[in-house]
Amino acid sequence: MFRLNENYLKLPGSYLFSTVAKKVAAYSDRHPEAKVIRLGIGDVTQPLVPAIIKALHEAVEEMGHAETFHGYAPDLGYAFLRETIARMDYQERGCRISADEIFVSDGAKSDCGNIQEIFSADCRIAVCDPVYPVYVDSNVMAGRTGEYNEAAQTWSNVIYMPCTAENGFVPQLPGETPDLIYLCVPNNPTGTALTRDQLKVWVDYANSVGAVILYDAAYEAYISQDDVPHSIYEIAGARTCAIEFRSFSKNAGFTGVRLGFTVIPEDLKCGDIAVRSLWARRHGTKFNGAPYIVQKAAMAVYSDEGRAQLKEQIAYYMRNARVIYDGLKEAGYEVYGGINAPYIWLKVPENMTSWDFFDYLLEEANVVGTPGSGFGPSGEGYFRLTAFGNYENTVEAIGRIRALRQ
Ligand code: MLT
User: What is the distance between the alpha carbons of residues 198 and 57, in angstroms, rounded to a whole number?
Assistant: First the structure.
């Protein structure tokens, strides 16, 4: 008789955003007349910009002719894209990253979830709390858990680093030594970021204890403050301790197109073995390359035209962030984030849990957000709204939330 990977049974019944979607669907069934505004999952709403659409059309056309048709893509990505990424995302920022160190994939979520496979099953992980659920869930699936503490909602083998208003959402170095440290900057869900000096502390720490930082920079394009680095490789010493994940979902609207990449420097080694070589082996075995059409579309992200159009798109979402931030603040909420990230993190009223507040907003304002406790125990008492809605809906949603306080 077959047996299951019982680690899966340790997970919550459904992924956070599926739970939210189910609750909203049930509410809409009961109230078909309600005009529900979704500011829950961080999914983009604006169409792909013209430069990307043009690149997609051209690549589709190429696929229709034998002379320009492309089959399997190279599993690490086409050289044209890897070289462009290395130059424009890294070398032009002064980071020493080469095309060989870039691995193109179908998205940062898959890479963040899969990366743990190349590390030993007994590695201890450290995560910020609250945290993007993929980091913990993918390690739970792999059995890196220990015992579950129901009351604290924590795993004994996972080191949680609380990030709350009290510490300015800056994780403190852990008391116990982890092997793998997940950092998401700018942060999902709190919308806050780390400065160069704050990140340097982590790079020095990781190098001193022999840990790897798994650095999720999916929201890098939203950084507006000069002292927030766009890449961990802007910090001296990061080449020997950090892996960086990037996404085209949030900077170019690819949530439905799918593309991302991971950077593993040659200097990141365990003894004599380059970590990069294991990820290359995994990619070669389990992945057949991101589609040619999509990689060509990504090239448009780096063109002058594409860059100008995407700058406007990001400004559009950040205008929403401002509407949410200012509107909630004026309504008397304690509000964070929204300056270097498209997420706003607010404190829920004292007498409510974050799920209570979710129900309250859904029922009273027909607005969907994400309860902070879904991101980890220290997320309790907080709530996340995304700036990825369209402007009119965002203005309306904030108007409705404000009206509840009058
Ligand atoms: C979120 O809402 O946190 C995002 O959708 C996460 C993701 O990009 O997978």
Answer: 43
Please report the pLDDT score of residue 143 as a whole number: 96
**From ligand 1's centre to the CA of 189, what distance in Å?**
9
Give backbone dihedrals phi and psi of 193, rounded to 5 degrees, phi first. Answer: -140, 170
Q: Residue 360: its pLDDT value, please?
A: 97
Task: Summarize pLDDT for 187-224 with one digit per residue, the tens.
Answer: 999 999 999 999 999 999 999 999 999 999 999 999 99
Where does CATH 3.40.640.10 sit in the chain? Answer: 53-303
Give the chain's residues under pLDDT 50.
Answer: none
CA–CA separation, 194 and 181 (whole Å): 15
Atom of ligand 1 nearest to the CA of 42: 2
Residue nearest to atom 1 of ligand 1 (CA): 42
Pick the residue whose CA is nearest to atom 6 on ligand 1. Answer: 42
Q: Is-contact 19 137, C-beta < 8 A?
A: no
Pocket of ligand 1 (CB under 6 A): 41-43, 109, 132, 188, 249
What pTM did the predictor assign? 0.97
Q: How many residues does the chain have?
A: 406
Residues carrying CATH 3.90.1150.10, the chain: 13-47+306-403
Provide CATH code, domain 13-47+306-403. Answer: 3.90.1150.10
Query: Atom 3 (ligand 1): residue with closest C-alpha?
Result: 42
pLDDT at 146: 87
Topology, domain 53-303: Aspartate Aminotransferase; domain 2 (3.40.640)
